[in-house]
């Protein structure tokens, strides 16, 4: 049941309370309420996703950051980015960031998961063992345009029995064929990969997205809180409920089974309690923020800001990682790019009509291209020579290449058509933090992703730019590309130092903060949660969201977050069986 008003809740005590109805939280709420004996409350700060057109129509998703459905955070001034502070979107509605993201579905490499297993000492996080959770999550769907998908994916590594729809592109784009041709012309650097989600992602292949066969976004809200689930009488979802802190309910071991929040903007503090567990799923910014507000964190830092420390857990909010991006832009000799739609609102209206009429046309997919690349820098490149490989193994890419058939995110000039290629640094060495800005639990925290603080990341980004330039050196782009555009013009014959300056001036986020409440082995002195996601030194509290990943996967992380949440649901069910 979906509630808009706290006064309508049937009770103030539940078996489980999930904080954050986002990507992970809704999975846990769904799986726990499979058992009719469990009453579950979800507290979500944002609004409902129902009827929010930009959260439904894939192409319009890019209008959600910096809106009423975003927390509208900014980072602190980033030294590695020449002092720039950048916008830092996080979904603030049911479905969380899965309702506002770019919908890329990528599972990472087998190395990623095997390394999570190794650093946590829990073989249950290994690639082989988590396959069952990818399967529980994924509902492989035919693409919206029903085109033949033979040769675009490997059916053997997909599941039709899960809850969250995943599909291939439903609308061809002008650059598709050129990208595929590049895999033939430059097959050594950019080989074709039939399926980037089989554990060995290296190469260029067809992208997979969390979009259903009707060309609509599949988020954790549309899937795990879909009509067949939200009406369960034991599932209670309260929106506009912003949690300030957890309240200690027993001393030894420290136990936190009550939650304080405000609802509906009244400013009045409410309290609800769980008899079994609290599951913190407020995401990589929200979860450490709530822990710190609750007195769980570094003792001295809490005292300094005026909060009574209860549990000394120094790593809360530390180890924040994100994958920096850098784009290169070209003017092209074609009118078949989305710039035509971006520039002409009449045309955009017609394309929306097409989507509304029968779920067809350009709007069935996101602004991203239909094809993605996953590339490694050779270990004998001077940037890596003699260094520890930042990637978790030899089947793991260092870069994701995101082609866009148009100009983004730069402002669009009145004329011209464009190609954008974006490179994301998948395994950054830089780390940052989430810290309190004041003792007011409703004040935004200080978010410092530490972009390019480690100079090796800067050098890796520089090499990433060169990889993008190399990609378009394939003959197939010869008659297509007119020239480097805008700020990218400096890249023609640029020195390494000039490319590095370009990176510092223009690099941004791919919106993947992770790791701020990291998992570590049981008994380890570092980390925030044990491999079963229970908070170290605390009873009755688990963290289930992207914040627990000790390092980013070599991928966009939503698939990993779904896997974490599916496995966590099994942990919780087993613990209370
Ligand atoms: C613009 C953008 C594009 C992205 N593109 C992709 C992509 O293409 N592919 C991909 O794999 N990943 C992408 N990501 C990243 C991915 O979406 C996230 O990593 C993932 O969804 C995080 O899941 P989560 O459960 O950790 O957090 P979230 O999904 O963010 O959920 C946290 C929830 O908790 C709620 N919350 C927070 N604080 C409180 C509080 N105090 N009280 C109550 N509720 C609270 C939030 O409102 C939110 O609903 C993108 C992210 C963004 C923002």
TrEMBL record:
Keyword Membrane assigned: no
Keyword Flavoprotein: yes
Domain Glucose-methanol-choline oxidoreductase N-terminal span(s) in chain numbering: 91-114, 283-297
Names of the cofactor(s): FAD
Gene3D superfamilies assigned: FAD/NAD(P)-binding domain, Glucose Oxidase, domain 3
InterPro entries, per the entry: FAD/NAD-bd_sf, GMC_OxRdtase, GMC_OxRdtase_N, GMC_OxRtase_C
Keywords tagged on the record: FAD, Flavoprotein, Signal
GO MF: flavin adenine dinucleotide binding; oxidoreductase activity, acting on CH-OH group of donors
Residue spans crossing the bilayer: none
Residues where FAD binds: 101-104, 243, 546, 557-558
Family label: Belongs to the GMC oxidoreductase family.
Protein name from the UniProt record: Aryl-alcohol oxidase
Organism (species): Mycena albidolilacea
């Amino acid at each position: 049941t979906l509630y808009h008003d706290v006064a309508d809740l049937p009770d103030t005590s539940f078996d489980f309370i999930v904080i954050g109805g986002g990507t992970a939280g809704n999975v846990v709420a769904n799986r726990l309420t499979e058992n009719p004996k469990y009453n579950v409350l979800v507290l979500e700060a944002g609004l409902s996703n129902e009827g929010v057109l930009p959260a439904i129509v894939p192409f319009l998703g890019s209008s959600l950051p910096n809106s009423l459905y975003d927390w509208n955070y900014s980072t602190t001034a980033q030294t590695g980015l020449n002092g720039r502070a950048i916008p830092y979107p996080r979904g603030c509605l049911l479905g969380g960031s899965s309702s506002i993201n770019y919908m890329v579905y990528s599972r990472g490499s087998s190395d990623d998961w095997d390394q999570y297993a190794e650093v946590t000492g829990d073989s249950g996080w290994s690639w082989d063992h988590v396959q069952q959770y990818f399967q529980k999550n994924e509902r492989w769907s035919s693409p919206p345009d029903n085109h033949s998908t033979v040769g675009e994916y490997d059916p053997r590594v997909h599941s039709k029995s899960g809850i969250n729809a995943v599909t291939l592109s439903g609308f061809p784009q002008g650059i598709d064929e050129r990208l595929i041709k590049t895999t033939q012309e430059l097959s050594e650097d950019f080989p074709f990969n039939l399926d980037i989600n089989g554990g060995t992602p290296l190469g260029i292949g067809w992208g997979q997205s969390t979009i259903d066969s009707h060309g609509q976004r599949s988020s954790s809200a549309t899937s795990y809180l879909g009509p067949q689930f939200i009406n369960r009488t034991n599932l209670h979802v309260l929106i506009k409920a912003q949690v300030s802190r957890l309240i200690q309910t027993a001393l030894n071991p420290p136990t936190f089974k009550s939650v304080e929040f405000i609802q509906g903007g009244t400013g009045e503090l409410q309290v609800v309690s769980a008899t079994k567990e609290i599951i913190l799923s407020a995401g990589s910014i929200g979860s450490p923020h709530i822990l710190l507000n609750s007195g769980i964190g570094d003792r001295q830092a809490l005292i300094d800001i005026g909060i009574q420390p209860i549990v000394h857990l120094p790593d809360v909010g530390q180890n924040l990682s994100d994958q920096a991006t850098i784009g290169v832009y070209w003017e092209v000799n074609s009118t078949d790019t989305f710039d035509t739609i971006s520039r002409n609102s009449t045309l955009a209206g017609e394309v929306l009509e097409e989507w509304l009429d029968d779920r067809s046309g350009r709007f069935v997919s996101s602004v991203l291209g239909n094809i993605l690349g996953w590339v490694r820098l050779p270990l004998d490149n001077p940037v890596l020579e003699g260094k520890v490989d930042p990637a978790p193994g030899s089947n793991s890419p260092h870069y994701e290449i995101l082609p866009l058939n148009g100009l983004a995110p730069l402002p669009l000039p009145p004329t011209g058509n464009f190609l954008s290629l974006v490179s994301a640094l998948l395994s950054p060495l830089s780390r940052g933090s989430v810290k309190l800005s004041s003792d007011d639990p409703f004040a935004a925290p200080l978010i410092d992703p530490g972009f390019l603080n480690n100079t090796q990341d800067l050098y890796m980004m520089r090499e990433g730019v060169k990889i993008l330039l190399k990609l378009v050196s394939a003959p197939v782009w010869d008659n297509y590309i007119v020239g480097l555009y805008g700020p990218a013009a400096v890249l023609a014959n640029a020195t390494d130092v000039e490319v590095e300056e370009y990176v510092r001036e223009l690099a941004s986020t791919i919106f993947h903060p992770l790791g701020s409440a990291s998992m570590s082995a049981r008994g380890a002195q570092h980390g925030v949660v044990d491999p079963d996601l229970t908070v170290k030194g605390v009873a009755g509290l688990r963290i289930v969201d992207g914040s627990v990943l000790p390092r980013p996967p070599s991928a966009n992380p939503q698939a990993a977050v779904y896997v974490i949440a599916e496995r966590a649901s099994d942990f919780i069910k087993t613990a209370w069986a």
